[in-house]
Design brief:
Layout: H1 9-23, E1 37-40, H2 52-70, E2 75-78, E3 80-81, H3 86-98, H4 103-106, H5 108-132, E4 143-144, H6 148-163, E5 176-177, E6 182-183, E7 189-190, E8 199-203, E9 206-210, E10 221-224, E11 238-243, E12 246-254, E13 266-269, E14 280-281
Parallel strand pairs: 1-2, 3-4, 10-12
Antiparallel strand pairs: 5-6, 7-14, 8-9, 10-13, 11-12
Length: 288
Amino acid sequence: MILEKAYQAKKYEDKIYRAWEKSGLFSPKIVKGKRPFTIMMPPPNATGTLHLGHAVMLALEDIMVRYHRMKGDPALWVPGTDHAAIATNAKVEKLLAEEGKTKFDLGREAFVERVKEFIASSQDTIRKQIRKMGSSCDWSRECYTFSPVLSAAVREIFVRMYHDGLIYRGHRIVNWCPRCASTLADDEVEYKEEKTKFYYFKYGPFVIGTARPETKFADKIIVVHPDDERYKKYIGQSIVVPWIEGDVSASIMADKSADPEFGTGAMTITPGKKRARVARCNCKKTRG
């Protein structure tokens, strides 16, 4: 027998995977006395192709499913894709921009159809890539997050969570796109450094400086450098300060992160709050 110098995956793997699917081994049957093992594939965004992170995820989940299958457990791995909402919308707008058009040139119905066409082509690519990984998922149960069934399930669980008090309207800093008039996920944001104004506020016996005045509402900790003679007498104390929404009890602490040469040398921080970011939506690239 003569062995090839290099393994030719295309000659064998597609044929093997088709045989696996045809066998029905990936479609489990309930077995009395056996505890089923079921996992859902985190659905990749239907905005392009899979990356290395997806490959790691597929490998890890495949190990778990095959382990339980070898134990004789009914093991189900449900595959699927995510319509990705704003990300897909922005992707199609970029493609239209390359044609010198905008979504307004197409109109709502035609634009939605264009999005569906893009998603369909992307889904086909993703399915092929998942199969190339040898993933032992049950394709007869493939899901799509924008399907009527799953959309109805999302609305149902949203209403239940609302009535249980788990969903409510609140006020907080978010990533906002003025063009889309919508909030954005962190991975849909493009960052840009720029110079901005620096503001000073009287905070009890201190004057604090900030470039983000909208984040100061709940600030109740003052930080100064431990060697800054101007503030040494206050370190470790707590004081009541008239502030934006009424009096607050503020604590003064020392830390070398405070720069005595920058601003007034005193700054405030908001305990337990995520630091706000200056960010721009990457969809700005799609403007016609």
